[in-house]
Amino acid sequence: MTEEKLPESSYIRWNQKECSACSRCLMACATYHWGAVAPQLSAIKWVEGDFLYGSQSYPLFCKQCNHPECYYACPLKDAALCIDSVTGAKYIDKDECIGCGECIEACPFEVKRINLDEEKGIAIKCDLCKERASGPVCVEVCDRQALTLVTREE
Amino acid sequence: MYGGYVGKILRIDLTNGVINKLNTLNYVPHFIGGIGLGYRLLWDETNEETTEWSSENALIFASGPCCGTPVPTSGRTEVIGLAPQGYPVPWAAVSGFGGDFGPKMKFAGYDAIIITGKATSPKYLFVSETEIQLLDADFLWGLTTYSTQGVLLSRHSNDVAIACIGPAGENRVRWATIMSRTNNAAGQGGFGAVMGDKKLKAIVVKPGSVRVPIAHPDKLLEELQVIAAEMSPKDQNRVPLFTDKGRYTIHRVSCAYSGCTGGINECPQCYFKSVPLKHTGHGSMSGHTYCAAGAANLLLLRSGYSEEENFEIGKLMDQLGLNVWEAFLGMNWFFQNCQNAGKLPKIMGEAIELNKNGPAVYPKTECSAGFTAELAVKWLRGVAFREGEGDVWAEGTPRGAEMMGLSEEVWKTHKHGYGPHWDGRYLHFVHYPVWIYSALSWATQGRDPFNQEHGYPERYPSFVREWSNQSLWDTDTIPYKEICRAGAKIYGARYANEGWDKPDLGYIDKEYVAVWHNHRAIIKSSIPVCDRQFPLLYDPYKKDKIGDVDAEVRLFNAVVGTDWSLDDMNKAAERVFNVMRALHVRQGRNRKHDESIIRYFEQPANWPDEPGPQTIDVNKFLDLLDRFYKLRGWDKNTGCPTRAKLEELDLKDVADELTNKRRNGGKHGSRTRR
User: Fold this and answer.
1) pLDDT bracket for residue B231 (50, 70, 90)
2) Fewest CB within 10 angstroms: A139, B186, B338, B422, which?
3) Nearest to B287 by CA among B271, B275, B276
4) pTM for the full model?
5) Per CATH, the architecture of B434-663 is what?
C-alpha cells in the first residue's frame, strides 16, 4: 500500500510528574463525548498499577501518530477513520464506523489506545475534542495541569 | 429516567445463597444515594430484634449518583449497618472509604450491594456484569488484607476492586476495618467484624461496560471548572507531588485539592518507599498513608520513633484490619487515663510506663501515649487474634473496660463507643463555643459524627484570623466579626458562630448549626463527595466571605437531571436523618442515651487564655437539646421523631412501625459479649 506523508498532528502530552492519577480526565472524556461514563466509552486508557508494591495507576493517551497505523488499517479510511484538517487528529466518524476493530488491531502500542464499544458497535478514539471550542476536555479538567495540548505548529 | 444511577441493587443472602436484584429507582432520588440509600435499606432489612451479630444484620455497600463520574472526590463507597463498635447498643452507623470500589461496582452494574445472612464456611463474593458468584475462601481465611488482595488480584484480574477483612475482622474484633487497597478503610463502626461474623472474607467487583449516565454533561463540565477551582484556592494544585520529605518518603501532597479521589483512585496522600521493617518482620514495605494513618500514629508510640517506624506500625494495623483511629485516638488515651489513675499497671502482661503528661496533647504536653513499638505490636496482634488479654480489648474500649473493672475511666474518652474527635478535648483543641456544637452533634448520633461534620469544628476555626495564621487551605483568614456575619447568613441564625468573645451567646442558635451540618453530612456522603472537603463554607476572597455552599446540589442536579434547590436537597437529607434516628429508636435509643455524653464535656477543655468557659453548663446544654428536638420535630421527653414529622417526610411506614414498637413495650438486644 502506498502511504502518503501526512501533516504533523497535534496531540495530548502527559506529564507524569504532575499527574496525581485522579482519573478525572478519563471520566470527563466519556462525559463530553457520550453523556455517560464507562471505561470503554473513554478514549483515554487506564493502566492499573500494582498498588501492593507501590506502583501507581496512570492514564494513557492516543499519540495521534504521524504514521497512523489505525488510519491505514481502516477499511473505510477517510469515511470511518478520518483526519481532521485543522489539528491533524485521527478521529472516528461514529455514523460510518462499523466496529470491525481493525484500527484497534493495528494500533502499535501494547496497551491499545482505541476502545471498542460493543453496544454502539463503534471504535472509541481520541479526536482532540475537535468540535469543542475550549479545546480538549481532559486538558480542561486536569487541575494539576499534567495534560497539555501540543499543537501541530509547536 | 435519572442520570447517575445504574439502576440495580444486588442483594445476597449468605445463609442460602439466594440472590435478588432490587430496582434502585424505588429508593432514589428520594433517598439520594450513598448513606441515604443505605440507611433506608438498613431500615427495611432489620427489625427491633436485630443485633450486630444477627443473621438479619445487613451490611450495605452503597455508592451514589456522582460516583463514577468526573465529579471531584466522588470515588467513594459508604458502608452501612448495625455497628459492633457502638455502645452500649450497636447503633446503626456508617463508615466510608475512597478508592476504586464504588466506581467499579457501578461499572459492574450495581448502585449498592446488600449482604445479609451468614455463611457456614469462609466465602468471598465475586461480582461482574455477567456473573455473581459466592466462592470458597478457606484458602484466604487467616491472611492479611494485603495478602488477600494479592491472591485475589492474581486469581481474577488486575482491574478488579476489592473490599476485604484481615484477621481482626475474621475474629470479630469490634474495631475491625474493611480495607480496600493499601490505605482505604471503612474503620469506625467495626464493620470488618460484621463481615467476619458472616464469614465473608472479601467482595471482588470487576468493572464491566455498564454506563453511568450523565443527565446534563455540558452543565456538569461547566460546574466542574467552577467548583474544582473553589476547592483548590491559592495554587493548592501547584504543590509538588513528589517531594523528598525523608529518606523513604517520596510522594506527599496536600489533603485539600480537587484531584483527590477523583474518579477511580484514592486519596494520594503520602507514599513511603521501601521502608525497612524494624518491628513487624523482615524485608521492607512500601505504601500510601492518609493523615490518620501517617502522622497520627505518632500519638500512639513513645516519642523518638521515626516517621518510618510509625508508618510500619500503621501498616501493621492496615494488614491486620484494625482501626488505626481507635488505636491512637481512643484506646491509647483510655490506657493513659487508667495508668495515671493507678488502675492499669500492666497491658498484655507487661509492666509499662505510659506518658504521664498525657492524654492532653496541646499546647504544652507531649502528645504521644508512650507505647514502645514492641508493646504496640504485641497489643495489636493480640487483639487481632484474640490472644490472651487481647481478647478483652478486641471487645472495644467500653466493653473491654467493663470486663476489666475499669468502667469508671471509659466515659472520660468514649461516647457511644467511640473515641474523642473534634470536641475540644484530647487531640482537637477547639475554641469555646465551637465544642458546644460538637457536644450537641455527638449527643444525637450513633457514632463519632466528625467523619462528616468537620465543617464547623475544623473548617470554621481554621478561617478565623484571631485563631489561626492561615486556613487549612492555605488561604487568607477572615476576621472573627466578619465570619460571624457570614455564619448568620449561612445558617439563617444570628448567633450561629457567636460566643467566643461573648460567652453568653455560646449556646444560642447552635441547634440551627447542628441541623444544618447534620444535613450537609448526609448530602455529601450520599451524592457522594469527600467528607472532609465539603461543604465549601467560606471564601475569604468574596465580599460576604460565604463560600459555594450549594455546590453539591448543583453537581447532583447536573448528574441526576433533577432541578432541586438547596431546600429540596435538605428535605431529602432530613428524611435520611430521621430514618437514621428511627433506626436508633428502634434499637432502644432515648433521651438518656443522648445525655450520656454530657459528663465527658464536664471535663475541662484546657484552652489557655480562653475568654469563654472551659466546661459544659449542663442546664444550658439541656435547654439546647430541648430546642434541637423541637426544631427537628422530635418528642422532647423521648427524643423520638413524632408521627407528624415522619409523615411530613413521607415516612408513614416508619412512623407506623415505631408506634407498634411503643405499643409492644419496645426492647432491644445488645450484648456486651458474644
Assistant:
1) confident
2) A139
3) B271
4) 0.96
5) Orthogonal Bundle (1.10)
